[in-house]
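Listing S7. Sequence submitted for prediction.
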Amino acid sequence: MTSISMNMYKSIFLSLFIILFGSCQKEDEPFVSPCQDGLIKFDLFNDELNPKVRFKELGVFKEKYELIQSEHEMYEQLEIDYLKTKIDFKRKSLIVISVKLTTHAQVTAQNITADCTNNKLRVKADLRYGSEAREGVSYVLAVITKVPVGTILEFSPNYTR
């Protein structure tokens, strides 16, 4: 073999090695926002305080809390009438809280506070009861910067008439 052919084979082999090695590397770890104590910024699901969303399986509990981390998980757990803006689950998490009430209530305000020491998010919501006494399930939703799996949700409702 000539030295040109040998160099060509070396180049092809080196190129294939780089391509194969590059495709076998692990994906980067998912983005998780560093925790800072205090109020955290959030977006409203579909830019609404009371979007048309509900759990597919509500369960038997009066309250249900979920921290959804992927689009698959979102569609597996929720019935969504429409999705105005797609959530980037690589950078965001979705908080979903449902509360069974004897009188349906609407969310009028909400905020979220981080407690980093206890790996906890405290969700506070003002809910105003409807004028007619009919059972219902109220939902509090928020799109937040990605938090680790295992973050604890705590809910503090404030009911008004």
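Caption to Listing S7: primary sequence and predicted structure tokens for the chain studied. The first strand starts at residue 38 and ends at 39. Residues 48 and 141 are 9 Å apart (CA to CA).
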